[in-house]
Design goal:
This protein is mainly alpha-helical and 105 residues long. The protein has a domain of 47 residues. Helices cover 58% and strands 0% of the residues. The chain is elongated, with a radius of gyration of 26 Å.
Amino acid sequence: MFLKKAAVSPPTAIAEGDAATLDQPPVLGKQTKEERAFVWRLDLFLLAYGCASAVIKYLDQQNIRNAYVSGMKEDLGLYGKELNYFSTYFSVRAAASHLGSLDTD
């Protein structure tokens, strides 16, 4: 019932001409000014979007809780554990939206 170790062949030498055909990540020091400017703008946009969406999520969640506490639960149509469900849906949606930003490498 023990797993057997797979035989691994030793790495082979790569000829000088073959090294350019391998899929290697670009070297960070060799980016052009245009690429760096683009990455900076992209980072700035994504950071601003992430911060704004977090603030809006927090405000929306607090508005629902305040309305519930102030006696508007009948007006909102919230009965039983529905306030908890709303909070859970907000958190799950926020977590799902962050999955796309994870680096899978």
